[in-house]
UniProtKB/TrEMBL annotation:
Alphabetized Gene3D superfamilies for the sequence: 3.90.1200.10
Domain Aminoglycoside phosphotransferase: from-to ranges: 92-132
Listed name of the protein: Aminoglycoside phosphotransferase domain-containing protein
Pfam families: APH (PF01636)
Transmembrane segments: none
Length: 313
């Protein structure tokens, strides 16, 4: 049990109490009645194990008006991320630098960076939920890498320009050189997985936008539905049913006690519109991929025909 009662500084034997980092997601779990202790990770593996446990807790909780389709998509994403080959993606290799920890700002957006008239950085604000993270989880802000779920700015790709500037600084110091090496994300397979572990609330969006397409060619609706119909996934099916029943009871409790948000109908319409938009975007992406394949094939055929003409001449 953690104690946050101030202790007298007059007692020389009294030392500051070090606890795990404050976490917005853990606070949300505690508000919902779930105990989320803040342990102190001393190794990278301990850190990722704790974050994965937090991810599981968050997406196993009952949810208001949870549909079967939503529950299946969430459970499927959790299952895929539990696979050994996926879990090993953000984990560091065993070396002397794997357990180095860095101070990480959780919300390093432009609004939190103070600059002067010449755009020189004068200070950074909003450090409330800052924490130390393993070097392999010390990532650039998601709006730079294009993985930001909460801002339209993520549509703009700053990663190439950012990497170019960072590379140009490699000769200034060993720290610049190390950071340029760590943040060389040309093979960025670990980025979405690590971002999910750092903020589990981004699970569904990041998983189906970036991780799923690398693993499956068919659209999610087909894969997810058939996945839960397989007999070897009975344990997952039972867990899914338990969460759906718990969510039904939770929703009914909210309604019986007038705890449902008055704006809920509007939010429901927005969610339905969002789902429909996601389906349309998925169809457009599929059509775009098919069109790209056709165009690539036509280009090859055209090039082959051109070669034949040149050989005849």
């Amino acid at each position: 049990e953690e104690s946050f009662t101030p202790q007298s500084t007059a007692d020389k034997e009294s030392q500051p109490k070090i606890v795990g980092a404050f976490s917005m997601r853990k606070n949300e779990l505690q508000i919902d009645g779930h105990t989320a202790p803040r342990s102190i990770a001393t190794t990278a593996n301990e850190f990722f194990a704790e974050q994965y446990q937090l991810l599981q807790y968050m997406w196993k909780m009952p949810s208001h008006e949870l549909s079967r389709e939503e529950a299946e998509r969430e459970e499927f994403a959790l299952h895929v991320l539990s696979l050994e080959e996926i879990q090993s993606t953000p984990r560091p290799k065993t070396d002397s630098s794997g357990d180095l920890f860095c101070l990480s700002h959780p919300d390093l957006r432009v609004d939190n960076i103070i600059v002067d008239k010449e755009l020189r950085i004068c200070g950074v604000i909003d450090w409330e939920f800052s924490a130390t993270v393993p070097r392999h989880a010390f990532l650039p802000p998601s709006w730079i890498t294009g993985f930001d779920t909460g801002s339209m700015i993520s549509r703009v790709d700053f990663s190439s320009e950012f990497t170019s500037v960072l590379s140009s600084k490699k000769q200034q110091s060993a720290s610049h050189s190390q950071l340029a090496q760590d943040w060389d994300f040309r093979n960025d397979s670990r980025l979405p997985t690590t971002y999910i572990l750092l903020d589990p609330s981004d699970l569904v969006w990041l998983f189906y936008r970036y991780i799923y397409p690398r693993l499956y060619k068919e659209p999610p609706d087909a894969i997810v539905a058939s996945f839960f119909q397989r007999s070897d996934n009975k344990k997952l099916q039972l867990g899914l049913e338990r969460r759906l029943r718990a969510s039904e009871r939770y929703t009914q409790y909210l309604k019986d006690n007038n705890l449902v948000d008055k704006e809920e109908p509007e939010w429901q319409k927005l969610r339905e519109w969002t789902k429909e938009t996601e389906r349309s975007l998925e169809q457009l992406r599929k059509w775009s991929d098919e069109t790209s394949d056709v165009l690539a094939r036509l280009d090859k055929e055209r090039a082959a025909m051109q070669c034949e003409r040149e050989q005849r001449v």
